[in-house]
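ENTRY TYPE: paired fold submission
RECORD: A
CONTENT: sequence, then structure tokens
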Amino acid sequence: MSEENRINIMEETPSPVLAQTTQQPAVEYASITERFVALAIDYGIIFLPLKGLSWLICKWLGPTLEMWQLIGMAVAINAVFILYETVFSSNGRVTLGKNLVGIAVVKKDLSGPISLPRAFMRAVGYYVSAFLFFGGFVLAFVDDRKRTLHDIFGGSAVVQLRERAGWETWALRGLGALLLVLFASSLYQSFGGRNWQDKYKVRQAQDFLQNIAILEEGHRIRYGQYTNDILRLALLSGDPVQFQRDMRQVLSTGRGSLKIGVNGEVYKISAKAKDKAQTPVYFTNRP
């Protein structure tokens, strides 16, 4: 496949010379591994810095943050991703990840780049695909043009923009396959397996300890020191009754299940989750 023909796909109007020499651009559709590498790059560009900023905000403001503010931050992060994908997948532009991999989004009939509204529908389609237990991405394995559900939403296809050396092709395939395996393994650990309910209960316990850690930071800001008194932290939460209910719901209520050790500027919170094995969980601010 020639470089000239691949680049021609991204033009709104084919040049007269090419129109005379060929009736349809010769293209090669991007594989699912290539696309996954590009998506991983774009995900890292958007989500990792913004999630890091959110973590700093949560650590700085601590217990003063309300639930609607936390939800607002999550919505804002995903809105930025949708905006990024919309702008850089339309009118001949490409995202950084796709540019590095050498692929681009075009109309399904290969007549040119997709419009801004179509790119927006395609970006929203990512979340529909994910909501369907990532089944929307699986379509690329069976579709003859390797289109996913969000491609169908956007009336698009993803094609290669340039020829690659053999080593580059195999490197992309290998990296993409590795990322897919790691992603599938992560999903299995989170939702699959026979003990997924127990894993969920352990995660709930860990999240609750992180909430206690936020209260510890608030106590230090207000009183100048950390505390091992869980009742003081419950009062600091603003709703001690709900705090006790949440604690009984996610932590084992056995004797000595929840412990807080304080040593100057270091504290450690330990407890037992409410799964069958009563898995020990802990949180510490030690670097």
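RECORD: B
CONTENT: sequence, then structure tokens
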Amino acid sequence: MSADSSSLLRLFRRYPRADLAPYRHFIVADRHLGWVQPDFARLLAEFPDVFYLTDREVHLHERLEAVKDRSEAVADVLAKLHERGAIPGWRGELYPVNRRFGEAPLLLMERAATPLFGVQTYGVNVNGLVRHGDAWQVWIARRAMTKHVDPGRLDLVVGGGQPYHLSLADNLLKECAEEACIGPTLAERARPAGLTSMVVEAMEGLRVGVQFNFDLVLPADFQPRNEDGEVSEFQLWSMERLEENLRSADDFMFDAALAKLDLLVRLGAIGPDDPDYLDLLAQLRRPTPYVRA
């Protein structure tokens, strides 16, 4: 990596590549689905009818063969651990647990627990773009201080996790309405623009994520407004300001910073003449390091 402090690779030094060696593999139906920290693994061992530990693994009990049975048994354990304060930030929202998007889940899990199991989660990101002459501007949101994760940090105009019961398209429409008052007629103009991924150790646990990025061109007179209390303000930035911020500050939440870096690459603001270009592309799309078929 470049030693230059203005290198965009500095973004990835905020969360160095996670050292997974201390973790136990989370195994469901002989499939490696995640990573569990030793301390949390010991809590799970208190529920031997649902989980059992081997030297390097945490297994969901084989007697739980159906997705419904697995999900209900895990939900019961997680609710008890939440009551004990071991799972903060409870969302009441179920995420699919699998190894690739669109694959049938092997179980459903409370969103707040997913970093504790290091399972792969998915989300939608929307870049709200405005044409300004020959250049682009982009809407930036600031997260409310009441947010459990990254309060007060900068974010995309719209972004949200992908729950089990919604399609990507329906989730995008829901998040656009809740986070920025973007109605369905306008939101349906959003176009898929690729993805970013991450495997990082954060305050809430091991975040293993795939974010589907969308670009949405907004009218020049459109002003986003927040409906769900998760955003404190919106600002309209130039691409030059965005690049300068990413090079010099840590104001953005990490997955939003990745989406914005990806945007700069796609719009040509960051190109092959940047000495870190190839490394940046590789870092934006890290594969999830599963080790078991």
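NOTES ON RECORD B: The chain has a mean pLDDT of 94. The chain has two domains: 24-118, 121-284.
STATUS: closed
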